[in-house]
Amino acid sequence: MAPDPASFRSDEPQRPNRPLDAAAAAPGALAGLKVLDLSRVLAGPWAGQLLADLGADVVKVERPGLGDDTRTWGPPWLKDAEGRDTSDAAYFFCANRNKRSVAIDLADPAGAALVRRLAAQADVVLENFKVDGLKACGLDHATLCAAHPRLIYCSITGFGQTGPYAPRAGYDFLIQGMGGLMSVTGRADGEQGAGPQKVGVALTDVMTGLYATIGVLAALAHRERSGCGQHIDLALLDVQVAALANQTANHLIGGTVPRRMGNAHPNIVPYQDFPTADGDMILAIGNDGQFARFCAVAGRPEWAADERYASNAARVANRAALIPLLRQATVMRSTAEWIAALESEAVPCGPINRIDQVFADPQVIARGLRVDLPHPLAGSVPGVANPIRLSATPVTYRSAPPRLGQDTAEVLADWLGEVAADGSA
Fold it and tell me: Transport: is it a keyword of this entry (predicted)?
């Protein structure tokens, strides 16, 4: 039975996503896994992209005519082969590689029914609607998991499925503030420019996507043993609090309330930025031996013998006296000179790179962290490689992030064995 054409609409000619080459066609670690991605923006799509990179068939359901919110979050926009702006913002391309896009209207009963049928074929459903936001469509976890006990259903929300804040919408910036990250990010009180500061990327969303992926893989392992799926309840706030790491341990165990310290570290000294003759550099000294070697390179070996600075605990206690001394020393050489001298003595240090400098770095180039994938409008589109290096089942780069709805007919044929009303497949 062909689906009602009112329930879906493709904004692109229907065409399959083809593997880029023979290596890309090799099965990934998650080959054969079917993921229905109902999420949008970043946290859910990040998880979907990671599962797709590992070989899963990830089908992204988008609103006809609109698509994922991030398609409109520009500029900048992807440019076509003639240099003209397309309708897709650069933001969209960071989290939707290796997926197939279907355009289906969940508000249309026929569209919701079609997605329920796709869910019946899926191993995993990802969604980041508000709590009970999919209930009216019959796409909530209780309904789908009751009908399909092997289904793994991952819900990503701002505050989780329970608790007084559960009905609220949650965005990364909001959660960075509520979850404590901004209280420890930014210049210290009393310094020029002091005040809470968000991280320069939507880090809570990215971490939530990673936790979601881990949760899905754990649920798959459980299903392999038990035959049963389960519901994963993942909240941005929970992730942000968990990711405070040593800062929460400092508070819960030490009884202190962590404060903003700029680029300084609450537990390690020296572990921050320092001025040089032509800019800045980072010293990341993690033990007393490294500190002694730094002092020797700086021509001040007596600092390492001084009881005020000889141990990390002493350096933390005497931070206010030590840091100005170090700053007076580091301004005497250029960043490149310091890095060359300190690296030869195995003292951790490095520059503070702009993003363009990151992609020009020889290590980044050697690791192949930029990937370029064919795109029907732009010719090719650049992206960032997946950092997971698997020896037997490497990550594959099969396709660029899709145009809205380009794979609707193909997915209906693959997953449901159907053709669209116009006969395409």
Answer: no
CB distance 282 to 273 below 8 Å: yes
Every domain range in the chain assigned CATH 3.40.50.10540:
5-242+367-416
Token pair, residue 409, equals: 């007919």
Q: What angle do CA 116, 122, 127 make, to 5 degrees?
A: 70
CB contact at 8 A, 396 and 24? yes
pTM value is 0.90
Residues contacting 222, CB < 8 A, separation 6+: 228, 230
The rounded distance, in Å, linking the Cα atoms of 42 and 58 is: 15
End-to-end Cα separation, the chain, in angstroms: 13
Q: Which fold has domain 271-353?
A: formyl-coa transferase, domain 3 (3.30.1540)
DSSP 343-357: HTTT--EE----HHH
The pLDDT tens digits for 52-89 are 999 999 999 999 999 999 999 999 999 999 999 999 99
Q: Which of 37, 172, 205, 407 is catalytic?
A: 205
Residue pair 205/217 in contact by the 8 Å Cβ criterion:
no
Estimate the crossing angle of helix 408-416 against helix 109-121, to 10 degrees.
50
pLDDT, residue 25, reads 56
Is 414 catalytic? The answer is no
